[in-house]
Amino acid sequence: MFRALGTASTGMTAQQVQLDVTANNIANASTIGFKRSRVAFADLIYQQMRPAGASTGPGAEAPIGTEVGLGTRVSATPREFSQGELQQTGNQFDLAIEGRGFFPITLPSGEAAYTRAGSFQIDGEGRMITAEGFALLGDIAVPAEAQSVSISADGTVAAQLPGDVEPAVLGQIQLATFTNPAGLEPLGKNLFRETVASGAAVISVPGDGSAGSLAQGSLEASNVNTVQEMIDLIAGQRAYEINTRVIKAADEMLGQTAQLR
Q1: What is the distance between the alpha carbons of residues 84 and 82, in angstroms, rounded to a whole number?
Q2: Which of 21, 122, 140, 249 is least surrounded, with the fewest CB atoms within 10 Å of its CB?
Q3: Which residues, including other chains, have CB under 8 Å from residue 165's CB and lie 6 or more apart?
Q4: Is 258 exposed, middle or buried (0-12, 13-18, 19+ CB in 10 A)?
């Protein structure tokens, strides 16, 4: 009887995590470049009351064992890096990645970080920076007198300068790809950090190898599907409710046992 109480409590704890993850997905439904997470569950150890093959009598063996599970746990919260919808903005410094890859960002500490959010701006030195002020990797500097800036699908940055017929090439934006992007560590602020699980970053030109291409004047929307999140929310709520009913039923059975004369 007490086993049922403990088992149901693990289910309630697991569904609470499901609710937390779903809430974070819904909260970031409008966050540029956000990638939704899901919850993966795994069952706990089993209490073996009789193993399969155990003797049940002279010359007889049990074909099936008798085991009782002890609940569930959250094994992982994998992040899904499926492509988000592209939204046209018309801003010449807004970039969206079509396909795999991340923009390499240099943090103030000098550490490298990576993002799918391509909402860039220009600082006083002409460098492309994120909304948080973190610089895009590379030595690209847009001159103050530039009349317009064009960024091609392969990341080539060119500026139209006064008096010049042809645009001046300023450099090329590169992308980082990972063997296992789900292993990246989220830092908040739309940033990720490389880990042993993700593998080392492979820096390449957009469109080269497995790296995707760039779309200027667009941003990648979150890949959160609010309808699916609502379904997950309802399913998690119902699973939590059922686990509470198990605890209530076990408690009532214990009460009835205690009242036996």
Answers
A1: 6
A2: 249
A3: none
A4: exposed
